[in-house]
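Hey Z.,

So I finally got round to the iron/sulfur cluster thing we talked about over coffee. Here's the setup:
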Amino acid sequence: MGREFKSKVSTSEALKDTKARHIISFSGGKDSTALAIYMLENYPHIDFEFVFCDTGVELPETYAYIKRFEEIFGITVHHVNALQVHGFEEKEGRIPFDVILRERYTGYLPSPQVRWCTKALKIDPFEHFVGDDDCYSYIAIRGDEQRASMSGGKSVKISQKENITTVYPFIDFQIDLETVKSLLDDSGLGLPPYYRWRSRSGCFFCFYQQIGEWQGLLENHPELFDRAKEYEKMENGRLYTWCEKRSLDQIAKLKKRYVVPKGEDLDGCAICHL
Ligand code: SF4
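And the result:
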């Protein structure tokens, strides 16, 4: 089946541009990490910048995975966040998600319908990092997947700004899932360890999680499950929850163990889950 979107600029063309910045965004997921490895190995003469938009509420496995990547390849991944965008002082214990939730959204939890978190915590920090410079944003959509549904059929881009041109090396070079796994294995990184119980990268309380993934969070990180519960609240007789129609307390009591779906088959946020 033909893809619904195509890069306007090919990766080969982008790589010839010596004036623009070349930026690879990490989500902590397998595809974006494999893309970083692929580009480093194949284009060592390019001065790539690596950036991770840190919500402050990512899984510990994600932070450890990025650190391991830095150690193996001897490079620095820039951690950017929403506090920098809005001029909040960065302090230990000050969590970007919590500050934005409280200061900008009056405690209103994000959801698939009102997904303010992706814009505020992923897109804005990325654009802040780029500024007005011309740059190529390398995105790890693979040649063998169909992610158009994740963006309503539009191209998956982190930013729509004119100075940021998105390129898709894995589509241009037809890199598939098997090659992604080989790149990760051969580097010594392997798959992110959370894939054993969760299908995608992103915040530990991401509302796109399925019940089996919430159960995985409870089993693997009970303290994070409890923190996720603390965000849920009752207001004016209405329960605000991460999971539609069920509170995390209810999920914790389920007897049935649900399977963890494959991230490849799910809708979600392409920017957070690459
Ligand atoms: S991972 Fe989920 S909760 Fe976190 S910013 Fe992305 S969509 Fe929002």
